[in-house]
Amino acid sequence: MTKLIIFDKDGTLMKLGHPVVKLADDLINEFSVRTDIHVPKSEIKDAFGIVDDQVDKLLGAQTTKAIVSSLEKLPNGDAMASWLLKKIEHATSDNEVEDIEIIEGVEETLKSLHDKGYLLAIVSADDNASMDLFIDKYGIREYFDKIITSDSSDYHKPQKELVQLIMDELNVEKEDTMMVGDTEMDVELGQNAEVRKIVGVLSGSGDAQDLRNADIVLNSVAEIVDRLGL
């Protein structure tokens, strides 16, 4: 029986928004696949000129060469820069972006799950400052029993210790735990932690192929209660 539900944040609870923000999120996942060196999401965002989840006139303020140069300073940056050059060709040149918003139906779903007695947690590569901006903007902190960011743990996705820390603190077994995320990395995290169920959502950067190893794939978190009978 599910007692604990662990969510990713970007693309799962919060909209990725602008294509370049999505590209940054993809880059972080790609980086994690290629190396065990942990680089906080904030550093990747800095390389893109992304501050507080906004694009700061990215393509107008920096040339592609300058962005690539920033990436090359990161561990394993050469490979990431090469990967970016192929990806950025498809990115928009629009310099304006709206604030990233919570995904439709997430607030109501979190309240419903909380009111029904489920333990809820977040695991994110974001730092505390970015997490706080999102959580406090929508007044949803009360729904979560544990929040882990890049500032609060030495582990990173898809290391099982991230989930184990939450389960240990909340005294919940893996057989009673569900992982929810929008990327292959989130699915791998759930697999490594051997949780009871892994739910993929198509609201972020991952597609059906990326989420093929999830137990079930939904359009968004808003479908969890009805589709899973929670």
UniProtKB/TrEMBL annotation:
* Stretches assigned to coiled coil: none
**Pfam families, alphabetically?**
HAD_2 (PF13419)
A GO cellular component annotation here is: cytosol
Report the SUPFAM superfamilies cross-referenced here: HAD-like
Q: Which GO terms describe its molecular function?
A: phosphoglycolate phosphatase activity
Per its UniProt entry, what is the enzyme's top EC class, as one word?
Answer: hydrolase
Please tell me whether the keyword Hydrolase is annotated for this protein: yes
* EC number(s) reported in the record: 3.-.-.-
On whether Hydrolase is a keyword of this UniProt record, the answer is yes
One GO BP: DNA repair
| Record keywords | Hydrolase
Listed NCBIfam families: HAD-SF-IA-v1
Concerning PANTHER family, the annotation shows: PHOSPHOGLYCOLATE PHOSPHATASE
Name of the protein described by the UniProt record: HAD family hydrolase
Lineage start: Bacteria, Bacillati, Bacillota, Bacilli, Bacillales
